Hints:
Chain B: One of its GO terms (biological process) is transmembrane transport. Chain B: Belongs to the binding-protein-dependent transport system permease family. The complex is a heterodimer of chains A (312) and B (309). Chain A has helices spanning 4-22, 30-70, 74-77, 92-98, 101-134, 140-150, 155-168, 175-199, 203-211, 216-245, 248-253, 261-269, 277-298, 302-306. Chain A is mainly α and 312 residues long. With 309 residues, chain B is mostly helical. Chain B has 13 helices and two strands. Chain B has helices spanning 23-52, 70-76, 80-110, 116-123, 125-128, 131-141, 148-155, 169-196, 201-209, 214-242, 246-251, 263-272, 277-304, and strands at residues 55-56, 65-66. In chain B, strand 1 (55-56) and strand 2 (65-66) form a beta hairpin. The model of chain B is unreliable at 1-19 (pLDDT under 50). Chains A and B meet through helix 1, helix 2, helix 5, helix 6 and helix 7 of A and helix 1, helix 3, helix 4, helix 5 and helix 6 of B.
Amino acid sequence: MTTTTPMTSSQLTGTDQLSGAARTPSATTGQTSRRRIRKDVLRSRIAAWTAVVVIGCFGLLPVYWLLATALSTPESTFQFPPKLIPTDLTLSNFTALAENDQLIKYLVNSMIVATITAVLSVVVATYMGYSFSKFRYRGRRSLMHMVLASQMFPQALLLVTLYAVFSSFGLLNTYTALVLSFTTFTMPLCVWMLKGIFDTIPDALLEAASIDGASRWRTLHSIVAPLAAPGMIAAGLFAFVRGWNDFIFAVTLADKEKQTLPPGLVSTYIGEFQTAWPELMAASLVVSVPVVVAFMFLQRYLVGGMTAGSVK
Amino acid sequence: MSTAAPPRKVAPPRERTGGRLSNGAFALLLTAPGLALFAAIIIYPLISALFTGFFKQDLRLPGREFVGLENFTYWLDGDFLTILKQTLIFTVGATIVPFVIGFALALALNTGLKGSGFMRGLFLFPWVIPGVVVSFLWMWIFNANYGVLNGVLMKAGLIEDSVSWLGQPGTAMLAVIITKTWASFPWMMVMLLAGLQTVPKELHEAASMDGAGSIRRFFNVTWPQVRGVASIVLLLEFIWNFQHFDTIYVLTGGGPAGSTETFATAVYQTAFKGFDIGRATALGGLWMLLLLVLVVVYLRITERKGDAR
């Protein structure tokens, strides 16, 4: 960053002076301003590429290092200074993962918990989002604000009391505790996403259905839901990813039996004295795969989903 | 994975009864399952947290004893200001730095470089991968003995001895901010790029024809158009960072010597390492008051934008 900013600004000032010259009456012919624009374009291209390259180094070199370490042998990892281009490539870190039963268990737990979280969040949020989108009633605004605000309350604090609540109901170390705690942040997200999707379905369609004699339940289940299905799947994928990625709730509310992959990786690899970095990096890649795949499907909803409940 | 199937298309026999409810009652009925869940897992725990702050209570044991404001004064007379200061340093740093980087990248990609769509996707990677993975990766990069950062800096002759980035108070906060920056600048970039793309190209061309230089075009054409998105993005990121937990917890756990202790790690450690749930929720209550101010500001802004029709 530090290298781009001064460069760009000096270029910008240069352009500014030039435009000052261009503003003198004799120079404002079409030709000069066209040439000036071409120069402008060239300058902004250079500035743009500089920014992309510098930020690219910051953004992507760590990713390269993640890959390189995952493919290295343990011996070469504990060399200093590190080899920037690994020569002894190996897949053994990945095969070691497949043979680790405890990790497979974490993986299965993650799958189960994230899937149930997604389904529960979407079902509940569909009704709520539909209500917010298509009906006008007293208290609606306050409810919507409550849902929105709930996303912003401190999770660490919520966790402390959730722990006490789950403990008194004997729910610690269960899938239920994980699903419910994940729902605290996936449900608001889904409500806002789905409200946005229902907003795009024209009211006229609902009126037509009502004139044709369909009840309100039937309208929702047989007419609106199929139309909103792609959006519901997207919301479900977002919820799945958020549940899959969670660390703080999973590490606290579940033990080794029911824990999900993110905290599972910590307990498996982060040793007090020595960490198995190549295996940890390989495992990290494996955890990231479902998320990356989900986001490839979600490209279209990306901005909408990321801003769900914030801006449209 | 597409388990999020739409609700079954059942047409139960009692379908007709739906027609007897007024529209308002029907709408409220739709929100009922959600509200029940909300009440059980968010509202009740948060309210009970506010009360617990006035009690002396061990997380592992039943029973508690009313102690009035003792838990609050414990913090206010003690570490509160230090924790607030460190939380603010983290929050401001981890909001401003990714904003600047994300904005620069958005501006660059918006000039229509070849392959900017592809690059946008590529740059999203740090944001998409799980937060724990981000923490592991940077923990490895910052590693004092074998880390690549030390290796590169030494090769470049910038440092002579290995630096223990996460292990000393002077650099730990910086390292944590860099890590969080890496994970969140792509989100800033996507949001700002979406904002920038609403600026009509013709406006730029017209301004350019009229002799406006790049700086002037930025402040007179671009900025007014993205100001709305920029303020929302900054505020949201600020709110999120103010309660961020994962990165700090995995990288430093609040240490070394408390130098990266924020509200989130302090509340967590007090409750789950010290088992003192009264003190933890007291600090949490103070923290929530501060957050509440931010959330109200945020709701006001979205309200004004007419989003919550």
